[in-house]
């Protein structure tokens, strides 16, 4: 081996090397020939390099005005260096080189054993980082999906914290995927340099495109299409952090649970049958109230002639009915929604019970057949009544006999056997008129030509029945809404027929006649009588509301003589009834019945879970099946949107990794890095010393310098030449890959 006076040529700084000459080994000396022959047999190559120094007589370049001198000059003499390089053929696979080059140890090179990760783990290849970051990004994206899926449909609590978690997962996914893209970009960058001769401006553009988008050059876009595409992926990658967190939103919703509610009450009229006002029951210190009031024939419990007879409805019932009519809906117990649903909740449930009800029938006759107390001729347009209700025919008389306080008869027994008897239940008769066109204006008066054709006239009757009800209660925002979902009419409460204009003459002041007399209900039939009295009291409240008229004068002015005008049955515009008045009458009666639940002191109010157990005013009743709900904000995860975003970037990342793998193969299986040492090694070629690297105060090079073409590869003797094969880290001539000028000024 040839040596310089100052040491081995292999330790020379390569920046002083000007030309590279490859000379064949002379076969003069037989030991050398034997060595060459032996090395050829073993696959080795022996070469001699002749390194020549720059001409020492060449003058140094002076520093131009306003520019900093960046020229590099020679400082050492040339020497002839002989380099031995052993290498094996390299094969490539998906993960990188299957048989990396094996270089013979350089006795002049310091050992790096134990100093690098690659030496610690023989299987490790830097390209694995690209795969690792891609896989980790996919895992982070999947974790983002799992996290959002776990929140979907749940109550939106700690919104900011969970949004930050989602943003963090999105950032990790984006950073990992883009790390794999950046690594692939670097491989493509170096592969591009090996394939193409580029200007310094284009090389600057490619090097800096990841950090600075303003350095883009048309030459780099045209020549380095793949690298520019990968850089574009990096620049649009922040969209993942912007778009994916928005796939988890907060929407208003209703949370519904099938559960049980406490304090649910129902109606049970059976206790009315056994109620005795002489021995009132108390619950929680409060006396239970009957729906009816009774007179008695004697205060002497031992009097064989003593019995109680009906006199009227209890005042709490009248109050509840009046409030119901005027509020146009069932009244509710104070704080009933909180008692049943709980604070902050809405709820709904159903109850069933048997009670009174009016069954109504459309009357198809004209009222002149003797059954109805009036005819259609009394209703406008033929008559003057817009509303005409007769609800008192056959009404029980509260004054049955001359009596003292408490209803005790002034005369001694025996009394009339019909004293206190329920003879019949009054039939409600209603005739009314409505506008044919509800959107039309009311005719001005009787003289208006529209008066004769503007109205429809109807009549119907309602009979009191025992009825089976199913009622749905819904409490929302503290408000009660009760809806009868099913009603089944069982039988008439009194199965008699009223005889109009027939005097009773039965020894009482109740001048009501009906047939058959044997179906009269007498006070001595205590239980049935008292239960019928409760039904009668309820029906009386409805009849009192309906009875009366709305009469129109010749000038069309309505004159109201009925409490119905204050209910939901009469339209305040024009004072005509609502179109479906028959259904409205049934609904009003049901509202009055449901309003009984507003006063738990009524005998008929019981627990829904145990109707035989009266509730009183207690607030800790048994539970009853119900549906609880409340308005809340919930998380809503838009799965498709998240995977649409991630899917695009994962697909782009896969494409980038494949381009990176291809670039590694083009780089002869070497995973290129952008470290300082790698850049220094790539620019150590002495051919670059002739470039004017001086810059002005703004960092700009001299005009035209940026257009200087540079190539990248293993430098050979002669300016602009390079070698396409890649063998070892230093090539078969020992200098490795570097940038060089492709043309000389």
From TrEMBL:
Signal peptide: none
Transmembrane segments annotated in the record for this chain: 128-147, 167-185, 226-248, 643-664
Lineage: superkingdom: Eukaryota
Biased composition regions of type Basic and acidic residues, renumbered to the chain: 62-71
Statement: the UniProt record of this protein carries the keyword Membrane: yes
Keywords associated with the record: Membrane, Transmembrane, Transmembrane helix
UniProt-annotated stretches for the region Disordered: 1-21, 56-77
RNA-binding in keyword set: no
Name of the protein: Uncharacterized protein
């Amino acid at each position: 081996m040839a040596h310089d006076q100052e040491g081995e040529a292999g330790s020379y700084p390569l920046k002083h090397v000007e030309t590279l000459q490859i000379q064949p080994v002379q076969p003069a000396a037989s030991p050398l020939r034997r060595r060459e022959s032996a090395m050829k047999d073993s696959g080795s190559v022996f070469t001699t390099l002749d390194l020549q120094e720059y001409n020492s007589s060449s003058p140094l370049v002076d520093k131009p005005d306003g520019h900093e001198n960046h020229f590099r000059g020679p400082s050492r003499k040339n020497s002839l260096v002989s380099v031995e390089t052993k290498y094996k053929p390299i094969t490539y696979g998906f993960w990188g080189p299957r048989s990396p080059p094996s270089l013979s140890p350089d006795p002049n090179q310091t050992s790096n054993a134990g100093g690098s990760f690659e030496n610690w783990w023989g299987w490790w290849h830097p390209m694995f980082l690209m795969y690792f970051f891609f896989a980790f990004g996919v895992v982070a994206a999947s974790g983002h999906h799992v996290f959002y899926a776990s929140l979907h449909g749940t109550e939106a609590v700690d919104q900011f914290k969970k949004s930050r978690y989602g943003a963090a997962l999105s950032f990790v996914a984006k950073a990992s995927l883009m790390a794999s893209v950046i690594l692939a970009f670097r491989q493509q960058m170096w592969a591009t340099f090996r394939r193409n001769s580029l200007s310094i401006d284009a090389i600057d553009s490619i090097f800096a495109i990841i950090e600075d988008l303003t350095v883009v050059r048309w030459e780099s876009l045209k020549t380095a299409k793949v690298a520019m595409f990968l850089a574009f992926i990096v620049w649009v990658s922040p969209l993942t952090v912007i778009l994916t967190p928005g796939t988890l939103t907060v929407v208003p919703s209703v949370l519904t649970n099938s559960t049980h509610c406490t304090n649910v009450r129902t109606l049970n009229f059976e206790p009315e049958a056994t109620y005795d006002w002489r021995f009132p029951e108390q619950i929680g210190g409060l006396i239970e109230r009957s729906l009816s009031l009774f007179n008695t024939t004697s205060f002497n419990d031992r009097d064989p002639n003593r019995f109680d007879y009906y006199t009227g409805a209890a005042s709490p019932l009248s109050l509840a009915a009046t409030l119901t009519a005027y509020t146009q809906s069932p009244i509710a117990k104070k704080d009933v929604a909180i008692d049943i649903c709980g604070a902050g909740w809405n709820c709904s449930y159903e109850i069933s019970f048997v009670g009174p009800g009016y069954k109504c029938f459309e009357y198809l006759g004209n009222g002149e057949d003797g059954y109805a107390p009036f005819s259609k001729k009394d209703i406008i347009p033929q008559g003057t009544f817009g509303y005409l209700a007769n609800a008192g025919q056959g009404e029980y008389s509260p004054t049955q006999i001359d009596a003292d306080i408490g209803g005790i008869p002034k005369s001694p027994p025996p009394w009339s056997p019909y004293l206190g008897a329920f003879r019949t239940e009054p039939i409600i008769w209603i005739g009314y008129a409505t506008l044919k066109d509800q959107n039309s204006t009311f005719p001005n008066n009787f003289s208006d030509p529209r008066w004769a054709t503007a109205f429809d006239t109807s009549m119907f009757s309602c009979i009191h029945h025992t009825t089976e009800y199913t009622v749905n209660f819904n409490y929302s925002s503290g408000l009660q809404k009760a809806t009868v979902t099913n009603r089944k009419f069982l039988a008439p409460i009194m199965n008699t027929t009223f005889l109009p204009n027939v005097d009773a003459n039965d020894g009482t002041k109740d001048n009501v006649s009906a047939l058959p007399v044997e179906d009269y209900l007498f006070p001595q039939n205590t239980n049935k009588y008292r239960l019928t009295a409760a039904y009668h009291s309820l029906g009386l409240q409805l009849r009192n509301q309906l009875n009366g008229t709305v009469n129109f004068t010749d000038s069309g002015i309505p004159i109201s003589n009925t409490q119905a005008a204050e209910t939901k049955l009469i339209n305040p515009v024009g004072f005509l009834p609502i179109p479906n008045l028959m259904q409205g009458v049934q609904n009003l009666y049901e509202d009055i019945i449901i309003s009984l639940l507003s006063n738990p002191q009524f005998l008929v109010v019981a627990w829904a879970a145990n109707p035989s157990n009266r509730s009183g005013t207690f607030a800790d009743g048994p539970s009853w099946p119900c549906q609880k709900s409340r308005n809340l904000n919930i998380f809503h995860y838009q799965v498709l949107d998240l995977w649409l975003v991630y899917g695009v970037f994962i697909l782009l990342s896969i494409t980038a990794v494949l381009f990176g793998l291809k670039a590694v193969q083009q780089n002869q299986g070497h995973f290129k890095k952008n470290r300082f040492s790698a850049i220094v090694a790539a620019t150590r070629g002495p051919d670059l010393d002739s470039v004017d690297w001086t810059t002005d105060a703004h960092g700009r090079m001299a005009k035209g310098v940026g257009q200087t073409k540079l190539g990248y590869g293993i430098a050979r003797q002669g300016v602009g030449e390079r070698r396409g094969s890649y063998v070892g880290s230093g090539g078969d001539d020992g200098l490795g890959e570097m940038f060089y000028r492709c043309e000389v000024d």
